[in-house]
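Q: How would the structure tokens look for this protein?
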Amino acid sequence: MRPRTRPQRPVTVAALALSLLLPTSLAPTTASALAPGGGAASAATTQAVLVNQSGYDVDRPKRFTAPLADEGSPFTITRQGNATVLFRGEVRGGVGDFTAFQPTAPGPYVVTVTGSAGTGSSHPFGIGPYWTYRVSLQRAVDFMVESRCAHGDAAALVHTDPAGNHCNRGNTGVAWRDSHQFSFELQGLIRLFLTNPDAFTRAPATGRYDGLAVPTTPDAPEIVKLINWGVDLYLQGRVNHDLLKEQLAWFLYAYPHLSRWIPRAQYDRARDHLVRLWGDPARDRWNWYDVEHSADLFQTQTVIGTGKGSLPPGHSIIPNLMMYEVARRDGLPDPDRYFRAAHDQAAWIIAHLDWNDPATTKGQRMSEHITVEALAYFLKRYGARAPIGLREKITQWADVAIARSDNMWDFRRYSDTLWVIPQYNEPGNVAGFPAAALAAARVLDDPERIAALRRIATAQIDNVFGRNPADAHFSHDAATPEGFEGVERGWPEEYPPGQGAGELEEVRGVLDGSPKEASYPYDPAADLGYTEGWVAFNSAWNASLSQLASDQSVMRGYRADRLGAISRIAVGEELAVRLRAPLNLDAATAESAVVRVTGSGGDVETVSVREASASALDFWANLRTGAGAARPGDGILQTAPGETITMSYGLDVYRTAATVTVVAPTT
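A: Here is the predicted structure in token form.
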């Protein structure tokens, strides 16, 4: 992955306390030259209104940036081509907030700002339920299908020698072109599936999956075939790098949810491979831009990577916790060894990482989300057994991230003096930041912090979609029919087609570039710097989409008339099940999903919840309850007073659920 800069030394514990030394050309400007929001003033004079060019989720934060607007400048929202004002507000600190505007129609809408710089209007944009997920998911899958090694023909690959003919013109991937060991492909794909499984089972797979040792069943969803593709090629390649071993651990953990389509033989191959190599320090097969460290995943990792993003702190935490569960499930020796490794790694982070040092946060580039997601996963799944101070450490990360986002873009900066990562193209960091912020938000308990994290997570998504100084989506082809709905301006530059290390230029959904230091706080004519897509950028985006799905998924039980949420239900009453989840992938059609309803007395039913209308927030179904012995699958949940009923959607630790208590009927 370019640019091919000189090798950088790994960051060790001692180095974390040091600030990154920067060349004079990257030094901050003086305060007298600062514009609203901080940074060098712009030479631009025309009123600019920068928005998410595709659209906004109706129930999430909705903000835009007007970098030249006077404080208090009025803004209005109208339908495109219609002068009727639907919403009014004022620009504060270069930001206009219209979160309170929650229309029932999708638009398109336009923001207009008036001030001393004149009157300016935004690109048209839409507003609707789960907008971001709806317009992004298919392109995320398309990218992972089209960026694979040998375009899906594994028979063309040579796995016996990592230095031999393999994958792509740059020979820089095992299963995806120019992917490297630190692209975390399987983590993103598996989490996407577990958080929102019904989003992936509606259409047949279209990709080519030839030459695999263990293929899936023909009816496997595309995302399952992608997961199996990665597993199969990693095993053919006999990977031994710790980061690639960790990807296989995710597969082992999730396998019960994939076993319908992936033969058991694949699971056995992967488990035997990992049990043999988990504690092996060697990492000589398949690695690029590596830093010196041990691949022994039982040891505490005290070396972290550079701005290349090659070794994020805490990368081994979730894989060790998953291997702990796999070992317990399969009766493997000493499962507690995996848990201790995860615990010790988290404790090391608590004791040694200083979030004020950008080398530990944005300085990890597109891999930053790995660290925060790992800490949040540990706390959410094993709270009582988590290391002392884990919640406080996540809170400290949140406070630093929130403070560094206090600017007119709501953009999480690199440091107090720099906006972006020095030397590197960083679309993956911006696209992956929501994964970290939303993971943290769901394990904290302060409403103000949670709201701030959701606001800045949304702002980074908006930045990807054009709310940035370049007024452009990060994907060069975003405004084409193969791009993203509603976007009018894709990234202005593109690596020469067919000449990139991964030949990703024509792949749908690729994230090509992002604004560099010169663009901030606002210089629309600034040099956009190096541009080239990378699998690691898109896999970070996949992580954000999965965390967004988790954050937007809510289950509740209601009275039969659906007019009030309940915590108790009497035997014999009808239970209304309400699911909110990003499942309206076709805005013109009322869609459905399957919810599992379980009684503590042993009965299990599934109900099909249906969207209240085309492009709605809520999915509903009613289920009868009754007395008597459990009869799973009969359409009536048999229960008794004192029991509980749990409604759930999603899989494993990524499911959303709600519980009601059963009481005796009133007489």
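The two ends are 71 Å apart (CA to CA).

Residues 140 and 509 are 6 Å apart (CA to CA).

Upvote if useful.
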